[in-house]
Amino acid sequence: MKTFKKYMILGLTFVLIGASISISATSKINILQDEIQNSSFSGRGWSDDFSSYTLGQFLDGGTDDGGWKGWDDNPVYGAYVVDDQELSVPHSVEIAGDSDLVHEYTGYTTGQWTYIAWQYIPSDFVGETGFMLLNTYEDDGEKSWSTQLRFNADSGVVVSNPEGSELWLVYDEWVEIRVEIDLDADIQKIYYDESLLVEKSWKDGVTGGGVANIASVDLFANYATAVYYDDMSLSGEGLIPLICCDGELSWSNIVPGTTVFGDFEISNCGDSGSELDWEVSEWPEDWGNYWTFEPENGLDLTPEMGVMVITVEVIAPLEENKEFTGKIKVINTNNPSDYCEVEVYLKTPRNKAITNPIINFIKNNQNLFPIMQKLLERFGL
């Protein structure tokens, strides 16, 4: 059972000898575009007025939920689209009971941004509900809070954690929650109903030790009765970097235990002038020995700098006649939800002794007999 304990938490190219290669890369950008199909982007930002969803739709991480999902991607914590109250016709989202609704963002690591959420609290509201912004969010992983607001029916106030700044609640009206965020200066100003609630650090706003990044919003019911949100937006000025990989890869007929080499490219495909800090974060550790990447990370990569070539070296597994698959993952270190992946395939041949001198001659001079070499590979020779 969840409690308010969360408030207390202060193209790719490989060059090999004797192997065939193709490369396949994917980017989180396409995934994010699918997730936000019911949300909208205006200039440098995001907005959602819940008007494009169906009345009664349960936002729980489905493909038509505009990127909204339950905490840790658990559908139990989703929320309903309703028309009980709405700021912009015809819908709003109801946060009540189990609801713990999350929307992630990517690329907001520099510049000045304003997050706005309009909230309606009925006069018969019971319990304590929360509005939060996080600088780090991973499903079932690392999290860091920058903004935590508690709306308490018993005390009749909104409280900012952890410093305890308060303002009186406003009932039966749509009220603007506005967070003005300067990621470069590490400052946030939180307003409730046009009154300044608190000004503090963004990185150290709640949890401490955070990063310059707007990672997600969290609408947390905490088992309270219903409150409503509408006309939510993230807007402002800033340069957004995005990481991209390119190409396709597979290695065939690799002798077990031999070292294979290659290289692939990454680039900053975000805004002109944006700076990307990146690192190789994952690779197929369950097969292959001594994976090395040169370089394995980098700072301040701009779109104008073009592609960055990463050299790869690995020792093929010792198992014979077996296929191995996996992915190389490269992340934006300031925003791990922005990443790209390179699919890897390697196959080792059967260990068949060759005594025919003609075949041995062809294998040892395969550059002279490319067609014959393909036939030998086809039959595992």
Describe what you observe in this structure.
With about 375 residues, the chain is mainly beta. The chain has three domains: about 45-235, Jelly Rolls (Sandwich); about 245-350, Sandwich (Immunoglobulin-like); about 355-380, no CATH class. It has helices at about 5-10, 30-35, 355-365, 370-380; strands spanning about 25, 45-50, 60, 70, 80, 90-95, 100-105, 110-120, 130-135, 145-150, 155-160, 165-170, 175-180, 185-190, 195-200, 215-220, 225-235, 245, 260-270, 275-280, 290-295, 295-300, 310-315, 325-330, 335-345. The strands form four sheets. Strands 2, 3, 5, 6, 8, 13, 14, 15 and 17 form a nine-stranded antiparallel sheet that branches. It has a seven-stranded antiparallel sheet with strand order 4-7-16-9-10-11-12, with no helix packed on it. Strand 11 (about 155-160) and strand 12 form a beta hairpin. The longest helix has 9 residues, at about 370-380. It is elongated.
In short:
The chain has helices spanning 5-8, 28-35, 357-364, 370-378, and strands at residues 24-27, 46-48, 58-59, 68-70, 79-82, 92-95, 100-104, 112-120, 128-137, 143-152, 157-160, 165-168, 174-182, 187-192, 195-200, 216-220, 227-237, 243-246, 259-268, 276-282, 289-294, 297-301, 308-315, 323-332, 335-347. With 381 residues, the chain is mostly beta strands.
